[in-house]
Write a structure and sequence with these properties.
This protein is α+β, with helices and mostly antiparallel strands and 466 residues long. The protein folds into two domains: 69-341, DD-peptidase/beta-lactamase superfamily (Beta-lactamase, 3-Layer(aba) Sandwich); 348-463, Serine Threonine Protein Phosphatase 5, Tetratricopeptide repeat. It has 18 helices and ten strands. An eight-stranded antiparallel sheet has the order 2-1-10-9-8-7-6-5, with helices on both faces. The longest helix is centred in the first third of the chain and has 29 residues, at 2-30.
Length: 466
């Protein structure tokens, strides 16, 4: 009887895991996400899911060893490293960082406000620095410590201070303070030769060169398994004084962002030191997202429940499925992070229904299909941004003709939008329809004379031989 019971338990566990994998794959398929790496931990049980291939057109399967760009999840590992240095008395959280660096080439020396910026402000995103500046430097958006505004520039500035204080590179520090003690053998802030056959971005000279320099804000290369080891150590407070761990996990700034609309999610999102904070039906959690364009990543961890989920994708739409993934593993909840981040469609049900009809009746009938829907339901509406996103999803899947039909529908619904014509022009350009591309770029430029993208493309296309 005991053997039968064990067999039943194993069968149920396998069936549950298979069901979850099937759901994850369906979410990925909906957005054309070709591959995904995910780890879920509850207590002492770990589930790993490796789905699809490393990138489009590849037959190389994602495995637990596949290396992904962690993007901004890099910041959390660096934040932990800084807090270790704080515990050791090497850095103060409240001493102006210019005291350590002396100067910084990306700051305007005439603006005395830069001298206010501290490590604490960097870790809670209140420096006043932009996410990224330009080739002229990083100009302040507001007086430091007066508002929340997410900033990669701040992390790079703090990295410079830490490297000068310790006389060590970021990657050497991370190896000493994080990767080696937590046995994160597949993690580095810079390219390593051992990644040669396992990276999701390949090993071309261009790819290697792109990962040559360490950047605390976005350059971490890792796996979901390794990153889970880091989060388990972080939840346990390993290597930190209890009060320091608490500093990271308690509210240090509000999630109400500078120059962003006020939304309900702001009431449930705060920032600790190096991590985002959320309160929902399941309780308090720490979290962060990563967005390096084609690479997307996300983690959430509930300290009181000892539950962790980490996933990485090599796809621009990887964060569109965050809420669906979280509901699959934690049960249906309010995921304020997903609302705060605002990835995905604003009207997902309508877009899903439209896609089904387009697939069945043909993309060339898009305008006809929508006109019929509007006739049956005068309140029926498809957001401009949703249609634009759908068009670019099709473009990324090399379905250029279908994308053009969706962009044409968007032009039909929003004829006064410069962006709809710009997107349609891009599709025509991709289809080598030179005259149609120029025509639509020009229409976009008429509606928005500041559309430099359209002006540049017109110039380039007009130089091409007929």
């Amino acid at each position: 009887m005991k053997k039968i019971s064990c067999a039943v338990i194993l069968l149920l566990a396998f069936t549950h895991a298979f069901s979850q994998e099937k759901k994850i794959k369906s979410f990925a398929d909906e957005y054309g996400i070709q591959g995904l790496q995910l780890v879920y931990v509850k207590g002492n049980k770990t589930q790993a899911y490796n789905i699809g291939t490393v990138n489009k057109g590849s037959d190389k399967k994602v495995s637990s060893n596949t290396i992904f760009e962690a993007a901004s999840l890099s910041k959390c590992v660096f934040a932990y490293t800084v807090m270790r240095l704080y515990d050791s008395g090497i850095i103060s959280l409240d001493t102006p960082l210019l005291h350590y660096t002396g100067s910084y080439e990306r700051f305007d020396p005439k603006d005395a406000r830069y001298a206010k910026i501290t490590a604490r402000m960097v870790l809670r995103h209140t420096t006043g620095l932009p996410n990224w500046g330009d080739d002229k430097g990083a100009r302040l958006l507001f007086t430091p410590d007066s508002c929340f505004s997410y900033s990669g520039e701040g992390y790079v500035f703090l990295q410079k201070a830490v490297e000068k204080l310790t006389r060590k590179s970021l990657n050497d520090l991370a190896q000493e303070e994080v990767f080696t003690p937590f046995k994160m053998t597949s993690s580095s802030y810079v390219w390593e030769s051992k990644f040669d056959t396992v990276s999701a971005f390949g090993n071309s000279p261009g790819a290697i060169n792109r990962h040559k320099n360490a950047n605390a804000a976005y350059s971490l290369l890792t796996t979901a398994h390794d990153y889970t080891l880091f989060l388990q150590a972080l939840l346990a407070g390993q290597g930190l004084k209890p009060a320091t761990r608490q500093l990271m996990f308690e509210k240090s700034s509000s999630g109400t962002r500078f120059d962003h609309p006020i939304i309900e999610a702001n009431q449930h999102i705060d920032w600790g030191l190096g991590v985002g904070l959320q309160q929902n039906e399941l309780g308090k959690s720490i979290w962060h997202w990563g967005d390096n364009g084609d690479f997307k990543g996300f983690f959430i961890a509930f300290p009181d429940r000892q539950e962790i989920l980490v996933y990485f994708t090599h796809n621009p739409y990887g964060l569109n499925i965050t809420a669906d993934i979280l509901n699959t593993f934690f049960g249906k909840q309010t995921w304020w992070q997903a609302q705060w981040l605002d990835y995905g469609f604003k009207s997902p049900k309508e877009i899903k229904a439209l896609r089904a009809k387009l697939a069945k009746r043909g993309y060339s009938r898009a305008v006809e299909i929508v006109e019929k829907e509007k006739k049956n339901n005068p309140a029926y509406k498809l957001p401009e941004d949703d249609l634009n996103s759908l068009g670019y999803m099709l473009m990324s899947d090399n379905k250029k003709k279908e994308a053009a039909e969706v962009f044409k529908l968007n032009v039909n619904l929003y004829p006064n939008s410069a962006n709809t014509y710009d997107s349609l022009a891009e599709a025509y350009e991709a289809l080598d329809e030179r005259e149609l591309a120029i025509k639509n770029y020009k229409h976009s430029l008429e509606l928005n004379p500041k559309n430099n993208n359209a002006a540049e493309h017109i110039k380039k296309l007009e130089l091409l031989p007929l």
